């Protein structure tokens, strides 16, 4: 199936590793021009070089989504470099787990306000697109009790709520807004790879909860993101797409 992505312009926050990196690669493979950002200049350069070796041209930039001015500047630079913006993927997370006020503040600043800032900076460009689409990355931990009391779960629930309301607000402008909620996703350097080494009992418990008997991959989540971002999904908006191998034990309505 042709997703209709050839020639589209996409920006991704947190694009140097994991789900963000897999999304950069897949969008590029589908013919998109892609720009991505991360906080570390070294990580951005390393990602650019690795992508270039794969034959992928992706424009990297340094930006912290907690810094509104810097993020807006990067979005403008990306729009100029790409010649516009059709697709926005808000992927960055603080992954707050500590029960401290600082962890709560950072989760709100990065996950919630980082998403809002990214959307608001890109919206003027999306309004000029014939296929404007926004996808935010949340988590199944926002949908049911999992992993104990954590700021991460709550702030991601806020992201899902924001995206649902955003979809309704932007529908008259022909801009779609959707969320993808991954379950337990394993990739080198990721949360579950670290827990496998540092806390094997927790890792084993989480692995055992999934009826498919395995964790997901970053590429599997990226495929969901790219589909929702594509013109092939042109009548889908306001959706929270769960990608978890049936980890969450509930019936969705």
Task: Characterise the protein shown here.
With 253 residues, this protein is an alpha/beta fold. The chain has a single domain, classed as NAD(P)-binding Rossmann-like Domain (Rossmann fold). Helix content is 46%, strand content 15%. The chain is built from 8 helices and 7 strands; from the N terminus they run βαβαβαβαβαβαααβ. The chain has helices spanning 18-29, 41-53, 68-82, 101-126, 151-170, 191-198, 200-209, 218-229, and strands spanning 9-13, 33-38, 58-62, 87-90, 132-137, 175-182, 240-243. The chain has a 7-stranded parallel beta sheet, with helices on both faces. Helix 3 (68-82) runs parallel beside helix 4, helix 4 (101-126) packs parallel to helix 5 and helix 6 packs across helix 7 (200-209). The longest helix is centred in the middle third of the chain and has 26 residues, at 101-126. The model has no long low-confidence stretch (mean pLDDT 95).
In a few lines, what is going on in this structure?
The chain has helices at 18-29, 41-53, 68-82, 101-126, 151-170, 191-198, 200-209, 218-229, and strands at residues 9-13, 33-38, 58-62, 87-90, 132-137, 175-182, 240-243.
Separation of termini?
A: 27 Å
CATH class: Alpha Beta
The run of helices and strands is EHEHEHEHEHEHHHE
State the share of residues found in helices, binned by percent: 40-55%
What is the CATH H-level superfamily?
Answer: NAD(P)-binding Rossmann-like Domain
- Number of domain modules: 1
Q: Which outline best applies?
A: globular
Average pLDDT, to the nearest integer? 95
Characterize the biggest β-sheet: 7 strands, parallel
CATH topology: Rossmann fold
User: How much strand content do the residues show?
Assistant: 15-25%
Using only C-alpha atoms, the radius of gyration works out to: 17 Å
Number of DSSP E strands: 7
Helix/strand/pairing category: alpha/beta
- What's the helix count? 8
Identify the CATH architecture: 3-Layer(aba) Sandwich
Low-confidence stretches: none
Neighbour order of strands in the largest sheet: 3-2-1-4-5-6-7
């Amino acid at each position: 199936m042709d997703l209709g992505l050839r020639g589209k312009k996409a920006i991704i926050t947190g694009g140097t590793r994991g789900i963000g990196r897999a999304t950069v690669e897949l969008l590029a493979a589908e013919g998109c021009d892609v720009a991505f950002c991360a906080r570390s200049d070294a990580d951005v350069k390393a990602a650019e070089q690795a992508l270039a070796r794969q034959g992928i041209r992706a424009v990297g930039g340094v930006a912290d989504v907690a810094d509104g001015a810097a993020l807006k500047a990067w979005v403008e630079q990306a729009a100029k470099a790409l010649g516009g913006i059709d697709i926005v993927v808000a992927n960055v997370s603080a992954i707050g787990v500590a029960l401290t006020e600082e962890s709560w503040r950072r989760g709100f600043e990065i996950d919630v306000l980082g998403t809002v800032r990214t959307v608001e900076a890109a919206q003027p460009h999306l309004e000029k697109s014939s296929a404007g689409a926004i996808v935010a990355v949340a988590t199944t931990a926002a949908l049911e009790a999992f992993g104990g009391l954590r700021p991460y779960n709550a702030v991601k629930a806020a992201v899902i709520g924001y995206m649902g309301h955003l979809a309704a607000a932007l529908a008259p402008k022909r801009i779609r807004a959707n969320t993808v909620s991954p379950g337990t996703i394993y990739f080198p350097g990721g949360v579950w790879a670290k827990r496998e080494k540092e806390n094997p009992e927790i890792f084993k418990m989480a692995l055992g909860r999934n009826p498919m008997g395995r964790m997901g991959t970053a590429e599997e989540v990226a495929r969901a993101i790219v589909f929702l971002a594509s013109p092939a999904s042109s009548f889908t908006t306001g959706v929270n797409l769960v990608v978890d191998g049936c980890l969450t034990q509930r019936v969705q309505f």
